[in-house]
Amino acid sequence: MAPNLSPYNPTTGIYTSTRPPVTLPPSPATSITDFLFRNLETHSDRPALIDPHSDRIVTFSDLKQSVSVLARFLSRTHNVSRGDVVLVFAPNSVRFPVAFFALASIGAITTTANPVYTVNELAHQINDSKPKLIITVDQLRSKVNGFGIPILDLEKENYSDKLIQKSSDRV
């Protein structure tokens, strides 16, 4: 009988990664952004994100810089701080993790919503999570306009997306 190479174990019902385990930081105080960028000196020019639709490549160095710029913008312009809830309502793109890690670096709580949610489904999530800010994109803005919550458009807001744009030239 051939060995089972599937990541699924039918006995336990658990999927297990076929990749080697990741060593987690010894201190529980290590933030997710510190953990993500822990090897920046040796990985700065390596791809951190690759958008398969646009061939956009974002290096770890560019990602860290974009995360820092957006975090400062969120803190200074929208007064987002530790413990604040922010709704990220956007499709998968290289901008999504920039927003997520920027919020994490501030200590904000990120609640995410599926881009195919209806306005009623969004209303339930907004009522439950009470976000201070909604981060979205132009194509979804009409679904969140009526909630009376400030909106940051990831594609239009001038928080300096030049770093990600520069990265997209690398293929």
Would you write up a description of this structure?
This protein has 171 residues and is of the alpha/beta class. It is 36% helix and 17% strand. It is built from seven helices and eight strands; from the N terminus they run ββααββαβαβαβαβα. A four-stranded parallel beta sheet has the order 6-5-7-8, with helices on one face. It has a two-stranded antiparallel ribbon with strand order 1-2. Helix 3 (60-78) packs across helix 4 (95-106) and helix 3 packs antiparallel against helix 7 (162-168). The longest helix is centred in the middle third of the chain and has 19 residues, at 60-78. The termini are far apart. The model is unreliable at 165-171 (pLDDT under 50).
Structural class: alpha/beta
Count of DSSP H/I helices: 7
Strand content: 15-25%
E-strand count:
8
- Which assembly state applies to the chains in this document? single chain
Cα end-to-end separation: 44 Å
| N to C succession of SSEs | EEHHEEHEHEHEHEH
Enumerate the strands of the largest sheet in spatial order, edge to edge or round the barrel: 6-5-7-8
> How large is the radius of gyration?
18 Å
**What is the percent of helical residues?**
25-40%
Low-confidence stretches: 165-171
Write down the overall geometry. Answer: globular
Query: What does the largest sheet look like?
Result: 4 strands, parallel
Average the pLDDT over all residues and give the rounded result.
87
InterPro entries: AMP-dep_synth/lig_dom, ANL_N_sf
Protein name: AMP-dependent synthetase/ligase domain-containing protein
Keywords: Ligase
Organism: Centaurea solstitialis
